[in-house]
Amino acid sequence: LGVGIRPLPVENAHALFDYRDNIVRAAIWALKYRGDRRIAHLFAEALSQYLVEELFELEVLGDVRELLLIPVPLSTHRLSERGFNQTELLAASLLAHHPLPLTLHAHNLRKDKETVPQTALPAGKRRENLAGAFSLTHPKLVANRDIMLLDDVITTGSTMEEIKTVLNGAGAKTI
């Protein structure tokens, strides 16, 4: 949803909002740390409007059919602490309220390794921190499929790059 630096550090990544904006940051924090579902609905509305245009273009060009929507997972420990995954809340809200050609795959991608929070690390150590942290429960479900990853904040792109490595290793068509 938000990005902390420009330009975006990951190929084919898009950010709807700039995380440096105080209102955007407060909204993401309300979603992430308080589980404010109203914020998830607001972000889902904005994301839906953006995706309708993007997906229409792809459909017209014949590049993409139905996408698998994969929210970035939390580790088991972090999920039990927080009680919810904010990115999964957003994805569920998006699909509950908007007819989009997306199929939610919320539990195929797992974060197996407990890592230091990325915000606590300098940019150069973030990818190393995440090495081997993610895996797929059912790799065959992503083989030859078009994937859309969803996360709340992107800064260095380390999380996305690590997940892309896992998905590419399972034969994902596009990410």
How would you summarize what this structure contains?
It contains six helices and eight strands, in the order ββααβααββαβββα. With 175 residues, the chain is an alpha/beta fold. The strands form three sheets. The protein has a three-stranded parallel beta sheet.
Describe this structure in words.
With 175 residues, the protein is an alpha/beta fold. It contains 6 helices and 8 strands; from the N terminus they run ββααβααββαβββα. The strands form 3 sheets. A 3-stranded parallel beta sheet has the order 2-1-8. The protein has a 3-stranded parallel beta sheet with strand order 4-3-7, with helices on one face. The protein has a two-stranded antiparallel sheet with strand order 5-6.
Keywords:
three-stranded parallel β-sheet; alpha/beta; 175 residues
What fraction of residues sit in β-strands? 5-15%
- Tell how many strands the DSSP assignment holds: 8
Secondary-structure content class = alpha/beta
> Numbering strands along the chain, what is their spatial order in the largest sheet?
2-1-8
Q: How far apart, in Å, are the first and last alpha carbons?
A: 17 Å
Radius of gyration: 15 Å
Mean pLDDT: 87
As residue ranges, the low-confidence spans are none
Oligomeric state of the chains?
single chain
The number of distinct helices, counting runs of at least 4 residues, comes to 6
Query: Sheet bearing the most strands, described?
Result: 3 strands, parallel
Helix content: 40-55%
- The rough form would be described as globular
What is the chain-wise order of helices and strands? EEHHEHHEEHEEEH
